[in-house]
Design goal:
The protein is of the alpha+beta class. The chain folds into 3 domains: 2-85, Rossmann fold (3-Layer(aba) Sandwich), CATH 3.40.50; 114-174, 2-Layer Sandwich (Dna Ligase, domain 1), CATH 3.30.1490.20; 180-362, D-amino Acid Aminotransferase, Chain A, domain 1, CATH 3.30.470.20. It contains 12 helices and 17 strands. It has helices at 10-19, 51-60, 73-81, 89-95, 98-107, 124-131, 158-164, 221-234, 268-271, 276-285, 310-314, 344-363; strands spanning 2-6, 25-29, 42-44, 63-66, 115-118, 135-139, 149-152, 170-174, 180-188, 194-196, 200-205, 208-214, 239-248, 251-258, 297-304, 320-323, 333-341. A hairpin with a 2-residue loop joins strand 11 (200-205) and strand 12 (208-214). Helix 1 packs across helix 10 (276-285). The longest helix has 20 residues, at 344-363. The two termini are 40 Å apart. Bound molecules: adenosine-5'-triphosphate and magnesium ion (2 copies). Residues 102-285 form the ATP-grasp domain. Its EC number is 6.3.4.18. Pfam families: ATP-grasp, PurK_C, RS_preATP-grasp-like.
Length: 368
């Protein structure tokens, strides 16, 4: 089976690493010359809007999927119309637009923050009346890693927030006073079978995911699965989907969904019987899904801006290192490492050391 991937970053790379043992071959449509997935397949270096590249990919691939949600809609539609794309163009298009996404979540009765559309400075006052303060103004399109967001704590900050985002269509959301951020990663096969991995607990800094923990047995697992399944079924979804959640006591509020494999699921490579990457490919290819049970507890730490020294990392017992082969730049995800153990206590000391190395590397200037 030949799989075409829209995008050539680390998610495409980890998909190819998971699919190669299954006998799959990969082709990546990615505009950047140094796409880090390129060495694992054929790289079509072209803009996502290049119609010759679409035709080449459609000829060279039996199925097409994407590793990022910000692929232009006409590109997605081209592959959808040829019966090649999974998940569907609609599932990706809704995730590209935060207002459409929130509307869908609410239609499906998944609790969310209060929200209102903001299309002009004049909309700000009525939006604030709905959300109250504090609130977050977000661009409706193209946001990731917390980019395109402005916090509003006082009414006087509202206009500055609107200007700071470039006066583009936005959404205002009430700030959910969460105790914890969680994500549920689910997969749905072509036959409609759904499976879910144990919840990930996620810690962010500066809008970027730093740490994901899998501690199986969370009492909110069933509720999270119910919400995620509702979304998978409503979208007639095929593949992996990640639903980001805020936990407030025993309630869960949906933040956004990613129509793809997700950073908070990287621990599944070593920490689950079948990884999110393998199951995404199995779903896309119409193969039976693998077991999503965790093998124990896991901790995944991202390396942002600068890779720690690999000797020091590999000195940590049992550490699984993933270096994406990308050049260093502030705020860029360059790699991650995962630790697995039978209990949370067993992991705690080594996880602390891993975080220390990641933080120290990030503080250092990028390598020349
Ligand atoms: P991602 O990289 O996950 O795609 P993103 O840029 O799409 O991020 P969000 O996930 O919406 O942005 O927001 C980034 C982070 O900001 C969240 O993980 C959470 O920590 C915080 N945040 C966003 N919206 C809210 C909210 N309504 N209430 C509280 N915190 C929020
Ligand atoms: Mg997002
Ligand atoms: Mg998010």
């Amino acid at each position: 089976m030949r799989i075409g991937i829209l995008g050539g970053g680390q998610l495409a790379r980890m998909l190819a690493l998971a699919g190669t043992p299954l006998g799959m071959r990969f082709m990546f449509l990615a505009p950047e010359a140094d796409a880090c997935a390129a060495s694992l397949g054929t790289h079509l270096q072209a803009p996502f809007t290049d119609q010759d590249a679409w035709a080449t990919l459609a000829t060279g691939a039996d199925r097409v999927t994407c590793e990022l949600e910000h692929v232009p809609l006409p590109t997605l539609q081209y592959f959808h119309q040829r019966g090649l794309l999974a998940p569907s163009d609609e599932a990706v298009a809704i995730a590209q637009e935060r207002l459409h996404e929130k509307e869908l979540l609410n239609r499906l009765e998944l609790p969310t923050a209060q929200y209102a559309a903001v299309d002009s400075a004049a909309d700000m006052a009525s939006a604030l009346a709905i959300t109250g303060l504090p609130a977050i103004l977000k661009t409706r399109r193209m946001g990731y890693d917390g980019k395109g967001q402005a916090m509003i704590r006082e009414p006087g900050e509202a206009l500055a927030a609107w200007h700071s985002l470039g006066e583009v269509p936005a959404i205002l959301e009430s700030v959910v006073p969460f105790e914890r951020e969680l994500s549920i990663i689910g997969v749905r096969g072509r036959d409609g079978v759904c499976r879910f991995w144990p919840l990930s607990e996620n810690r962010h800094r500066n809008g970027i995911l730093r740490l994901s923990l899998c501690r199986p047995g969370n009492p909110l697992q069933a509720l999270a699965e119910k919400y995620c399944e509702r979304l998978l079924v409503a979208l007639d979804y095929v593949g992996v989907l990640a639903l980001e959640l805020f936990q407030c006591g025993d309630e869960l509020f949906a933040n956004e969904y990613a129509p793809r494999v997700h950073n908070s699921g990287h621990w599944t490579i070593e920490g689950a019987v079948t990884s999110q990457f393998e199951n995404h490919l199995r779903a896309v290819a119409g193969l039976p899904l693998g077991c999503t049970e965790a093998r124990g507890h896991s901790a995944m730490v991202n390396f942002i801006g600068n890779m720690p020294d690999s000797r020091q990392l590999l000195d940590i017992p049992g550490l699984h290192l993933h270096s994406y082969g990308k050049s260093a730049a502030p705020g860029r995800k360059l790699g991650h490492a995962t630790l697995c153990g039978a209990t949370a206590e067993q992991l705690a000391k080594n996880t602390e050391r891993l975080i220390e190395l990641a933080d120290a590397a990030e503080g250092a200037p990028p390598h020349a």
